[in-house]
Amino acid sequence: MATETELFAGIPKIPYVPDAGARDVLCFKHYSAEEVLLGRKMEDWLRFSVCYWHSFCGTGADPFGFQTLHRPWNEGATPMECAKKRLHAAFEFFTKLGVKYYTFHDRDMSPEGSTLEESNRNLDEMTDLALQLQIRTGVKVLWVTCNLFAHSRYMNGAATNPDCHVLAFAGAQVKKGLDVAKKLGAENFVFWGGREGFYSIHNTDVAAELKHMANFFKMVVKYKEKIGLKCQFLIEPKPKEPCKHQYDYDAMSVIGFLKHYELDSHFKLNIEPNHTTLAGHSYEHDVVMASVFGMLGSVDSNTGSPDLGWDTDQFPMDIRNTTMIMKTVIEQGGLQPGGLNFDAKVRRESTDLEDLFIAHIGAMDAFARGLRNAVRIIEEGVVTSMVKERYMSFSHGIGQKVEDGSASLEELEDFVKQNGEPKVTSGKQEKYETVFNHYL
Amino acid sequence: MATETELFAGIPKIPYVPDAGARDVLCFKHYSAEEVLLGRKMEDWLRFSVCYWHSFCGTGADPFGFQTLHRPWNEGATPMECAKKRLHAAFEFFTKLGVKYYTFHDRDMSPEGSTLEESNRNLDEMTDLALQLQIRTGVKVLWVTCNLFAHSRYMNGAATNPDCHVLAFAGAQVKKGLDVAKKLGAENFVFWGGREGFYSIHNTDVAAELKHMANFFKMVVKYKEKIGLKCQFLIEPKPKEPCKHQYDYDAMSVIGFLKHYELDSHFKLNIEPNHTTLAGHSYEHDVVMASVFGMLGSVDSNTGSPDLGWDTDQFPMDIRNTTMIMKTVIEQGGLQPGGLNFDAKVRRESTDLEDLFIAHIGAMDAFARGLRNAVRIIEEGVVTSMVKERYMSFSHGIGQKVEDGSASLEELEDFVKQNGEPKVTSGKQEKYETVFNHYL
Amino acid sequence: MATETELFAGIPKIPYVPDAGARDVLCFKHYSAEEVLLGRKMEDWLRFSVCYWHSFCGTGADPFGFQTLHRPWNEGATPMECAKKRLHAAFEFFTKLGVKYYTFHDRDMSPEGSTLEESNRNLDEMTDLALQLQIRTGVKVLWVTCNLFAHSRYMNGAATNPDCHVLAFAGAQVKKGLDVAKKLGAENFVFWGGREGFYSIHNTDVAAELKHMANFFKMVVKYKEKIGLKCQFLIEPKPKEPCKHQYDYDAMSVIGFLKHYELDSHFKLNIEPNHTTLAGHSYEHDVVMASVFGMLGSVDSNTGSPDLGWDTDQFPMDIRNTTMIMKTVIEQGGLQPGGLNFDAKVRRESTDLEDLFIAHIGAMDAFARGLRNAVRIIEEGVVTSMVKERYMSFSHGIGQKVEDGSASLEELEDFVKQNGEPKVTSGKQEKYETVFNHYL
Amino acid sequence: MATETELFAGIPKIPYVPDAGARDVLCFKHYSAEEVLLGRKMEDWLRFSVCYWHSFCGTGADPFGFQTLHRPWNEGATPMECAKKRLHAAFEFFTKLGVKYYTFHDRDMSPEGSTLEESNRNLDEMTDLALQLQIRTGVKVLWVTCNLFAHSRYMNGAATNPDCHVLAFAGAQVKKGLDVAKKLGAENFVFWGGREGFYSIHNTDVAAELKHMANFFKMVVKYKEKIGLKCQFLIEPKPKEPCKHQYDYDAMSVIGFLKHYELDSHFKLNIEPNHTTLAGHSYEHDVVMASVFGMLGSVDSNTGSPDLGWDTDQFPMDIRNTTMIMKTVIEQGGLQPGGLNFDAKVRRESTDLEDLFIAHIGAMDAFARGLRNAVRIIEEGVVTSMVKERYMSFSHGIGQKVEDGSASLEELEDFVKQNGEPKVTSGKQEKYETVFNHYL
């Protein structure tokens, strides 16, 4: 079988060559899987995952242009034949790249049939093959998700569709997805509600839709428990696109929703920075916020351009950003069972097969640099101690009472009457920025 | 006393003259306070409020220019003399305009002293006068708020300041603010956390700051209960400005925060559409979302320009927007004890004293038109029945089970196996838009 | 042949029924083609045009979902058979709607072949039929354009492609497009440089690309003159999407480019408001700016949502916006030979065939209301005289010298030395807004 | 005199200590003024300039808060006494920092009087002192500009004011500004039209205002020639803020304006990246575009936050950005007589006097790193040769004819008929990004 799937024939397993020059873009210069930092291997801090849809199903079509990416694995007599060829190619790629995880939608891996039953049969056949390839290669599923947005039936939403028949279809599809997650040992299961929102407020009953979405999630939780599926559930926020407004706007919106419907113990968040910036936040914002609320489950490591108003799903290349993400990840003790999933696609103009490698290598190196920087920041402790000192007043006296919740307004007033005006303390933002730059 | 405060001498009480021509901008053409719509007077649906800070304290200074607005009520020998003259002028204005409510910050009404004690004494003296003027004119306080952002001590935050001494000062100030609210019979009390957020993530301990903010609110709730203050607490979301990131980003962020810290039964939201649009939402979005979650307490009726990235606090003039707001307000049964507060300022180039009247009249008429439109939409029921029909599948069968939370994934799958693919149903957005236009 | 093309069988010619109720969305309530306003028929002020690509070629696919719109005119045995059926359907639609113009790309009307020669033969055959249908119905071509962005060959640009072979292909295609424009009597010819820009500054030689684009336009001008084509050339600005940056960013960018390369006498602009708002301007901005510079040729009458960062090409429904556009159009004496082209698509969820009518009717009525409003504003002259009065100082004395360019800094200084500080004059923005609202 | 101005007493001249650790933020780690790169000293490539208004006149006030920065040089008995103390402090700062240039507005350096004559006298007295300090220290004026936006008389614009009296005042002020520029040997003169635009389209005659602005510039050019002033004129684009729309929106808008009014030979552009990003472009965009059109005169080296919609004027700290700017600067042969002016302010929370040093040092080091990176990129030539290869087709055959403007559409068509479909060429964006990262 090896021969027929050797689609990246010219490309050997990617080595780590730390001193490679600028033009040598088919080796790692920073990412060294086995190297230990802060007591953990690089690959365990970074837990990279390749996404199946962009990298193996993407065609390069955009709203203004047709297919540009013609992949050899898509040449087959039937949809199922292509699907299998594609899966082989993907595992060849994972292996050569040295990535231990992949992620997929049910409908990426396996073609949708004309009935639910046919779709499920296709999925059974394909996941049999996937399981076999997982065992052979050691590559595992970081997360599975169900595609509840691409088929025309979902045009008005899935769990929030005004027609309960569509919601039922989504439920049936997710039921199968959960079975597949169990079968393949997925470590997480993601819900991205691409069409759970609205295009026009005029035709939408928001209250009804939110309740339906909550009830949908409750059924999902019940079924997960029933089948003994152990993976972590994750919701992936996005503010808009394709919808005008998506209910899972950003980390805090999802946290508010989950808490309102008492679902918060069953879900964490999968944060995609390109979605975060579309919601008007800075790159690292939702990773930080989710982490602070104990809800950071996984990260879709990609990037957009701050001057563009749509999701471009570019490979993350900015060391400043990767440093900020890895600092947060280290501070919360790692992402496991989550990881860093490359929900990123090569540009539609990047038509060479090698571009798929170059893009992943460039991004993995960008994260490896980010990790190394974050480790140095944490190990040297300069920033940490500057911050600790800044909040020191909460460790004693009236500050401690505020901290532990035992103070009252009357006590605060008494404190001010005794101590008068607070002294001025510089925030020293430029000093922090300058020190931070030292580590980049 | 009447003579000395007659600062709007040339302007009589604003009449309602429905057929006034285009140039006549000193009368109402649409707002008729006593007219009854859907069983309630216009003034009870609209509950307009004038904001003290923009309309009576504003100077027209902006980050690139000095004062342009030179108000006669600011000419006085001492700050307290000015403050009193200003308050008289304001009540003259409220009365001539025919608005029954006003809103203010503690520091608008009364100059800050060099100590907390002096500030409190000033506030006592000023609120004695305010109470007197309220009784004389029948004008009431829609809400009070404490200014916890303008003084330099708050530059790094109030309840989220890294220095607990500053937090204590904020607590002392709010304690007095609550006393004032009780004294003046304020129907609501607003918290706008203008500096509760960060300018740089590098120097900020987000987890600590959020906890301090929650503990601060808990003290405030306790003191409110202690003094028997009956008003509604409101939090006003804003995404950014002056901060780079404000914790109360938008309605859902605040709801998430309140639920996480179990504060949600004590607070509702005061939504400002200019803040909503800065958070990347449509004009009416947060009003709708807050209402859906049962958290809409009041509205700061203003507008921004969608092409500008900062808060311009313009008077709301777009009938489409006012119609959407009033439709939501009617559907939730009104805003009481909240209202429509004109958190809006005349442009700094609008230097004539009459511009203050023209702006309020134009905005009140815009809301009166919005109310009339919304009433017609609701009374005729065309849109309502279109929406109802759209969600009809949830009123019976499997839909009803989803609605009441008794369905399971297995049942949904069975339903699909029996009923196959859902039928295609047009969302008919353009029809909704066309019908909506009919009412504008 | 009439029978076989009767695809909108249930829908008769759209009547004008000014007092139709809210639910009756299949008649005009405001647009009355023959009615005369300011000495010109409504249809001559409005010069509506249906766009072929969205309304007849659109499938409803978006970056996250598959086709939703299954049109009967796309069911045929061969691409050419479909193309002809589609064209018949389109003319049936134009006629029933009562619109006199249409616009199209070469590749919408006629399928691309495997060679340039085959594509050209297809286009010849299809335009023969188009000409026949134009003569039979009286419907005319507002403008033609060449699709230089959808085929994968154009992925890196057409006139700005780094490979001159692609530029040559674009040139050959435009040559044929100009021949077609002449054959069909197109009144304008549009260039939209969707891929003339860059995705990454790193791989781009901006100076070279701009020069190539200019030289390309010079060849186009020469060929137009050679064949005696009389139509107006138009460039359509767009800031981004699909590119990260498009050279024709907005009206002023194009004007700068045209003047730099001395092409400005040969081109005007086709302004699309959805592109204008994506460039950070207000809805009417580029229409106004192009008009002021004598460069407003035509308008793509659509709209986006200000909270979305991509081109949604919605039907324009906001009366405020249509009023602003029509006021500018009237002030420049009309758009002829340009028009109001509905570069707008029904939402992908608007799957009923009637939605295509409803959307156009709603938008035509929105423009008819805008026209009526603008006519009233201009006829009553209130706003005009307020503005005239505001600039009166330029009609005499030192102002007149500034106006005619004969003043000097020395004279300005002398004037100030004699006259001192200028008096304060209110900008009265709220008054203007209130008066403007009177006409909506 | 030295003693009385020693306001930064604790801070010695900033040394270059390349191996200083993270906490040592009062020395340069990368900027070494005398070091030669590509045949030029670092200080000649970088030509840093300190801006007077932010760094010496800034108070820390923002639209939501009062003064936070209390500078010792602002403590004086009279405005003129303060002004002198401030100027001494500034020259002490320039000298200790080792920066050779400064920039200022007329009204920063010298207080506005109650008449033009008094203002001019103040300016004469202050510039006498400035000249003395320039001679003593060797620090020079990079550029002067007139503040035509802060005084209330300019609220409706200066050269575009509807009242010609205001325009006359602006003209008189600029006349004096040009005299001052000559006196102090300014190398450039900047025009930033902060209020040249509009707040409301309703009250604005755009055509008239643009013409007045052009005529104003023509007078300015004439006076410059008359007095034999040799400096470069620069226009600084900004899209909005304080205006809703500023006519000098971005580089291309200004180029379009200048060419339309035949002013382009007299002006270049001063590009501020924080303005560029507010116009919806990427950080380096306008620097690149201005350079390509031969119009890049100078750079206001600052930054904003991409998630904020207003001008924050932060110190530039992102090495990626500084590398892109310096690459463009080197490619056009340097910025002289322009430079890199720190139009940046310490955050209002950065209240320590040393923060002013830290901010400048951090930014200068960021630019020094950018310069070193850009030099390596250019010297190694990897990127350059990749780009050159990409456009190679224009160096021969049909490509060369396109390049030199001698090709025709007919020839392009012939070429395609002979050569068929172009081959697919990957844009290789990820490769470029990965290679670029190698140099950061």
Automatic annotation (TrEMBL), chains A, B, C, D:
Q: Which Gene3D superfamilies match?
A: Divalent-metal-dependent TIM barrel enzymes
UniProt-listed Enzyme Commission number(s): 5.3.1.5
**UniProtKB keywords:** Carbohydrate metabolism, Isomerase, Metal-binding, Xylose metabolism
Q: Name one GO molecular function term.
A: xylose isomerase activity
For this chain's UniProt record, which GO biological process terms are given?
Answer: D-xylose metabolic process
Q: What class of enzyme is it?
A: isomerase
Q: Which domain of life is it from?
A: Eukaryota
Per its record, the protein catalyses: alpha-D-xylose = alpha-D-xylulofuranose
Residues in coiled coil: none
Q: What family does the Swiss-Prot or TrEMBL record give for this protein?
A: Belongs to the xylose isomerase family.
Return the protein name. Xylose isomerase
Q: Can you name the source organism?
A: Coregonus suidteri
